[in-house]
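EI: anyone free to look at a 176-residue chain?
SC: sure, send it
EI:
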Amino acid sequence: MSETNEFSRPVRLETIGSSPRPMVIEAEPAERKALARRFAVPAIDRLAAELSLSRTGDVVQASGCIHAQVTQSCVASGEPVPATIDEPFSILFTPPYEGRPSEEEIELSAADCDVVFYEGGSIDLGEAVAETLSLSLPPWPRAPGGDEALREAGVKSEQEAGPFAGLAALKDKLRK
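SC: here you go
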């Protein structure tokens, strides 16, 4: 996590027990504006998370759902594209693995993909929610008419540029 988190909601480990603790966090307007700059989107009109926290030893489990209203730019035309994000998540906060050389290759299982390492006596739920939002954004937002704008610009569709498109073109040439 960066040292200047735009949406920081630290939670001290000693306040988290083994029983699930429900929480709701929501980003303020200035925090949403700063996150929009960081994620290169025109606007984040809402960012909230409903979650529960529980701890077993040094490992904290955060499970819940993020809710966001985001405006992205169309990849074809640059026009605004609204997006509603309602994304469930489950994150394990754990201290860094000790005793492993940093050059050693590490294999991650699917369960390891939502692990956030923390140091010290607290975790930052806000940053974890912000990162979850970033990963939940549609990667290629398109406004109505975006596909047409791409065709006019000479960009091929997935079907035209896919792995079998070259074979289809070769087949058509061989028929002639």
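EI: The radius of gyration is 22 Å.
SC: 👍
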